[in-house]
Amino acid sequence: MNKFDLGILGGGQLGMFICQAAKKLNFSTIVLSQANDFSAKQFCNHYLIGNYNDKNILNDFINLADNFTIETENIPKEVLKKIEKNKNLFPSSKIVEISQNRLKEKKFLNSLKGIRTARYKPLINFIDLKKSLEFFGNTAILKSCEFGYDGKGQHTVQQSNLENFKKLNFKNYILEETLDFNKEISVIVCRTKNNCSYYPPVENLHKNSILRETTFPAKIEKKTRDNAIKIALEISSKLNLIGILAIEMFIMKDDSILINELAPRPHNSGHWSIDFCKYSQYQNLLFSIFNKKVKDPEPIGSCKMVNIIGNDYKNKEKIEKIFKFYDYYKEEIKPLRKMGHYTKIT
Ligand code: ADP
Ligand code: MG
What we know:
This protein is α+β, with helices and mostly antiparallel strands.
């Protein structure tokens, strides 16, 4: 079999959009998916279905391309290392390893001069949890270090429910202070060895820890905007990023910025760039992978992206009539599952 230009680990909606952008740029794609049905299936040139840890399938996958990327950070370290041994992986396994573990991520971010996250405590046992909860004023967020997304693996802890967490596997969690932030924003950076571009801050509205709406541009002061971009570029540079990195941030009441988390892949808050930028986050990711100059996105105007979650999908036909709608072609509607999104000019 001929080789493909790009191997993508994961075939969800982010993988699907990478494949669609690749097709337009004449790059062929092969997807490795753990699920039988997946959004990218009809858009990639070829796919393999199997567990990332299945050595035979992984070997086949690695042999079929020279350049690889991910659409989720939740990929076993060993798999990333194996790919990187003989092939190119963008972003690098080092970056993915940091961003797939909250504790590593927080330690890294706080080690950078002038960059801060919410205060947090690593946990060892129940007494630790109890003490840390008191430290944070008797309400805090318990977050799993790994495999969290869309608020999964997170619990609000208070004195009233503390006992529920007695049997936790403590070392896999951190306790984080609950922030009274003003806004949530994100900045997406695309970078090669030689140049760099970024998507300016967008404002993100979450409900039950899931992104509902992204607005471009974020309604924040210029000073805060410039600061957010400076921080995003600093983090990307310290990581020697080649590829794409989304940086989620909290803007506090005094306009200071705390970093929430990093995502070394295209980001839900960058979907607007497909319709409202000359160059989307997916195109720029491909430019960075194939060592072409990454472009200034050149946004064409203010806009909004709205996620279609769970049963909202049942109104798909209505939505399609009014807005530019993107279907993720998921088999089954699940309550908090992202099923699609739409964008509109504002
Ligand atoms: P995920 O990996 O699920 O996206 P996040 O840590 O980004 O996890 O949390 C999801 C959302 O929960 C955030 O976007 C934010 O709305 C809310 N959240 C997370 N951490 C805090 C915090 N320390 N204080 C207040 N809200 C938070
Ligand atoms: Mg998040």
